[in-house]
């Protein structure tokens, strides 16, 4: 059912402004610096509901059909079984609100509890929360926890961690007495010598990704030793699909695991909404941000679900709050729980294996083309970095015009890597699609269309 298009008239806006005691809408923006305000008109046409729907339908027809996506970097084009949408679109899931009153929210709480259980199994850690906004905010909150627990103010992050995660961490820590140290890479993975130099008795935590942003596998055992020898906390950012094939953070000795949950049944959808996953060892549970649902029994011995350890500012004195995370991505978390329940352990492993097979097949084919070579050598799962003969940004632009998104331009975030394309594969990528990708790269190399760059 479509929502009606109900615009506010000038008189409606005037009366609302009068009611709140201001003369104009601009009076509401006084705290926003002038240089940050949009000065030009958005040129939005005045349309009726019928005209608007017609306009939107015509715009949607411009979407390119059959585009093949080899992009990754945290958001992946996985197959989503039809049952996922059929279940999560039911009114009891779509309309479920934040469970402030557990006694009337048992269904919502049970779904969250099942989501938490899935996340504990995937990460190998003791406790997972009800979810976060996205993987980046989960990474930042993990650093905050580590500082609170250790009473230290130095955060060490590998350069091979997603630059988007690192940007959010920098935002969280700005304006505070925190030392944020980025350890450079060597051959596509964290430079262990530089890491050892950076980690000291002032370090609260070390954050690494497994696999990292370039798809490479890190030497987690060595990183864990360096981190824990000074009693700092090890935070691992993981790929939840690849987790079906790799050691869990719990098995690797991590204290905290965080992840972007989008691959678990959520569409790419232009990059959102996303889903943050957050899990910890039991001794850190009282520092955990967000919500935590627990299973219990009522006075009659019946199983029930409750919100527990509610150390958010809505529930306790503000100065004792452990987080300002006031909600969870409930519908996205429900989607992930449904997706994992449908696939099961073996199904998830099959998705991971097929993704890895497609990625390695694509890498072998691409590296056989003259002018394209590995940026790094070493093991990878379903994502790899390709050195291109021309700027990767131009490769992405030209290939997308042909209906193929060939990967992610690493030069957007890494200086000196303008000719590095990060290619990802999922179980959806077929041999024919890989052929199209390789043929497109060959054509570009041979035609010289980029030689002017």
Automatic annotation (TrEMBL):
<dbReference type="InterPro" id="IPR015424">
    <property type="entry name" value="PyrdxlP-dep_Trfase"/>
</dbReference>
<dbReference type="InterPro" id="IPR049315">
    <property type="entry name" value="GDC-P_N"/>
</dbReference>
<keyword id="KW-0560">Oxidoreductase</keyword>
<feature type="domain" description="Glycine cleavage system P-protein N-terminal">
    <location>
        <begin position="5"/>
        <end position="439"/>
    </location>
</feature>
<comment type="function">
    <text>The glycine cleavage system catalyzes the degradation of glycine. The P protein binds the alpha-amino group of glycine through its pyridoxal phosphate cofactor; CO(2) is released and the remaining methylamine moiety is then transferred to the lipoamide cofactor of the H protein.</text>
</comment>
<comment type="subunit">
    <text>The glycine cleavage system is composed of four proteins: P, T, L and H. In this organism, the P 'protein' is a heterodimer of two subunits.</text>
</comment>
<dbReference type="GO" id="GO:0019464">
    <property type="term" value="P:glycine decarboxylation via glycine cleavage system"/>
</dbReference>
<dbReference type="InterPro" id="IPR015422">
    <property type="entry name" value="PyrdxlP-dep_Trfase_small"/>
</dbReference>
<comment type="similarity">
    <text>Belongs to the GcvP family. N-terminal subunit subfamily.</text>
</comment>
<dbReference type="Pfam" id="PF02347">
    <property type="entry name" value="GDC-P"/>
</dbReference>
<dbReference type="InterPro" id="IPR023010">
    <property type="entry name" value="GcvPA"/>
</dbReference>
<dbReference type="InterPro" id="IPR015421">
    <property type="entry name" value="PyrdxlP-dep_Trfase_major"/>
</dbReference>
<protein>
    <recommendedName>
        <fullName>Probable glycine dehydrogenase (decarboxylating) subunit 1</fullName>
        <ecNumber>1.4.4.2</ecNumber>
    </recommendedName>
</protein>
<dbReference type="GO" id="GO:0004375">
    <property type="term" value="F:glycine dehydrogenase (decarboxylating) activity"/>
</dbReference>
<dbReference type="InterPro" id="IPR020581">
    <property type="entry name" value="GDC_P"/>
</dbReference>
<dbReference type="GO" id="GO:0009116">
    <property type="term" value="P:nucleoside metabolic process"/>
</dbReference>
């Amino acid at each position: 059912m479509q929502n009606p298009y109900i615009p506010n008239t000038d008189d409606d806006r005037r009366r609302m402004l009068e009611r709140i005691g201001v003369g104009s809408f601009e009076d509401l923006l006084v705290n926003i610096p002038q240089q940050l305000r949009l000065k030009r008109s958005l040129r939005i046409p005045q349309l009726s509901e019928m005209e608007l729907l017609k306009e939107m339908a015509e715009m949607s027809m411009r979407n390119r059909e059959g585009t093949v996506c080899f992009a990754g970097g945290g958001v992946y084009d996985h197959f989503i079984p039809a049952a996922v949408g059929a279940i999560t679109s039911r009114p009891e899931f779509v309309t479920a609100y934040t469970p402030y009153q557990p006694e009337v929210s048992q269904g919502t709480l049970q779904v969250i509890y099942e989501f938490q259980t899935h996340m504990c199994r995937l990460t190998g850690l003791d406790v997972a929360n009800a979810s976060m906004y996205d993987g980046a905010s989960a990474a930042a909150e993990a650093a905050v926890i580590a500082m609170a627990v250790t009473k230290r103010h130095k955060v060490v992050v590998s350069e091979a961690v997603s630059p988007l995660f690192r940007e959010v961490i920098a935002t969280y820590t700005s304006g505070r007495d925190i030392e944020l140290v980025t350890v450079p890479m060597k051959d596509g993975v964290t430079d262990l010598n530089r890491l050892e130099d950076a980690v000291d008795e002032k370090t609260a935590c070390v954050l690494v990704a497994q696999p990292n942003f370039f798809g490479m596998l890190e030497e987690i055992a060595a990183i864990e030793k360096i981190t824990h020898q000074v009693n700092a906390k090890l935070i691992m950012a993981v790929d939840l699909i690849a987790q079906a094939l790799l050691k869990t953070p719990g098995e690797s000795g991590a204290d905290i695991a965080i992840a972007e949950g989008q691959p678990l049944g959520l569409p790419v959808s232009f990059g959102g909404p996303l889903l943050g996953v957050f899990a910890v060892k039991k001794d850190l549970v009282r520092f955990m941000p967000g919500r935590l649902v627990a299973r219990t029994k009522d006075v009659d011995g019946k199983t029930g679900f409750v919100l527990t350890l509610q150390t958010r500012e809505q529930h306790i004195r503000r100065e004792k709050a452990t987080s300002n995370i006031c909600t969870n991505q409930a519908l996205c978390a429900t989607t992930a729980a449904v997706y994992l329940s449908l696939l099961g352990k073996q199904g998830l492993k099959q998705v991971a294996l097929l993704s890895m097979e497609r990625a390695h097949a694509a890498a072998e084919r691409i590296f056989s083309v003259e002018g394209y070579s590995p940026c790094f050598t070493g093991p990878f799962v379903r994502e790899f970095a390709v050195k291109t003969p021309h700027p990767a940004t131009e490769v992405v632009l030209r290939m997308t015009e042909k209906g193929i998104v060939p990967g992610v331009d690493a030069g957007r975030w890494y200086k000196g890597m303008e000719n590095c394309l990060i290619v990802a594969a999922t179980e959806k990528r077929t041999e024919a699609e890989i052929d199209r990708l390789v043929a497109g790269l060959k054509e570009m190399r041979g035609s010289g269309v980029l030689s002017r760059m």
